[in-house]
Amino acid sequence: MASFRTPARPRSRRMLAVALGLGLAGAALGTAAPATAHKAADAPASAAVGFVGAGGKDDSKAFFDAVLKSVAARQAEQPSLKVVTVYYNASQAPTFRTQIANAASIWNSSVSNVKLQATSGTGDFAYYEGNDARGSYASTNGHGRGYIFLDYAQNRQYNSTRVTAHETGHVLGLPDHYSGPCSELMSGGGPGPSCTNAYPNSAERSRVNQLWAYGLAQAIAKVNAAR
């Protein structure tokens, strides 16, 4: 699992499910959790690994593959679709509505081979919010669906839009790279709380475009072959 690393938290024990954890947080949020807050256990499906780097590229790929499978099934059913769209449901993370919308806008303006779009129905992944000692993370349920959990504490400590855009980067196929500079979105919490950059760099943009150009074509072929 990929995670967002900060020095203030201990490493969590690895659990059974594939997950991508990451820590970041934003100064824009208040200190009190709203009544609609979810605990991590309320999020659907499998448990997540802690956000301090317990996972790696294999876990990141597992989450991406789950979302890719969901999108490929839809594209195979509707081959006339011209735009590859990943749908997300943010209804369970109302506190982060603005950050989620901003993250989607950032990625949509940064890449051309895939677009993020909100839905009120069942999406390819969903956002949840609440308190979790592991911090923010992205996780797959292993059945073609995934979710992003946004932790209140991290989003007070780190720039919240960076947290959300980083986690969304996992959905699009990117792993963590904590040793990277602030200009690298997937460096997560590595550069520290002073880093507020929420945009992927050129290498990250290129990688996402490549993944969705070739990876999706292969996934659609697999869907069609299985029929």
UniProtKB/TrEMBL annotation:
Regions that span the bilayer: none
Enzyme class label: hydrolase
Localization per record: Secreted
EC number: 3.4.24.77
Superkingdom field: Bacteria
Substrates-to-products reaction catalysed: Hydrolyzes proteins with a preference for Tyr or Phe in the P1' position. Has no action on amino-acid p-nitroanilides
Signal peptide bounds: 1-37
Pfam families the record matches: Peptidase_M7
One MF annotation (Gene Ontology) recorded for this entry: hydrolase activity
InterPro entries per record: MetalloPept_cat_dom_sf, Peptidase_M7, TAT_signal
Keywords from the UniProt entry: Disulfide bond, Hydrolase, Metal-binding, Metalloprotease, Protease, Secreted, Signal, Zinc
Entry cofactors: Zn(2+)
Family statement: Belongs to the peptidase M7 family.
Official protein name in the record: Extracellular small neutral protease
Taxonomic lineage from the root: Bacteria, Bacillati, Actinomycetota, Actinomycetes, Kitasatosporales
